[in-house]
Design goal:
With 120 residues, this protein is mainly alpha-helical. The protein has two domains: 37 residues, no CATH class; 82 residues, no CATH class. It is built from five helices and two strands. The termini are far apart.
Length: 120
């Protein structure tokens, strides 16, 4: 499994292809994480989560289930009256994640919903 996921292979990610719904992807990843003991912050997504500030708030909340004191700067940015640009948010999130003292996985379940039309 590590060779297919990129975890444990120098941090590089590899997408072996995305099967359709019902093929057991979530079950497989969940079982693998359980079997390997990899720290993880699971996030299930919906179409409405395409809004960047909302998406980031959910990402932060998921990460904080594993590392409660993490992501303080990005959290503060999302509370501002005028949310910074996506580029600025990416930089702040990257800096916050650099402060996390342990490797972890962040499975984004149903990622395909992001950017999908909310009317279909």
């Amino acid at each position: 499994m590590p060779a297919r996921t990129g975890i444990g292979s120098g941090g590089k990610c590899h997408n072996p292809g995305i099967p359709q719904a019902g093929y057991g992807k979530s079950t497989f990843v969940s079982q693998w994480l359980n079997d390997t003991g990899v720290k993880n912050a699971w996030l299930s997504l919906e179409r409405a989560d395409s809004d960047l500030p909302q998406f980031l708030a959910y990402v932060i909340a998921a990460i904080q289930t594993v590392f409660p004191d993490s992501c303080q700067e990005i959290s503060a940015c999302l509370q501002m009256a005028s949310v910074p640009s996506p580029q600025e948010l990416a930089g702040v999130l990257g800096n916050d994640l650099d402060q996390v003292d342990s490797r972890f996985a962040l499975p984004l379940d149903d990622y395909h919903h992001l950017g999908a039309s909310t009317t279909g």
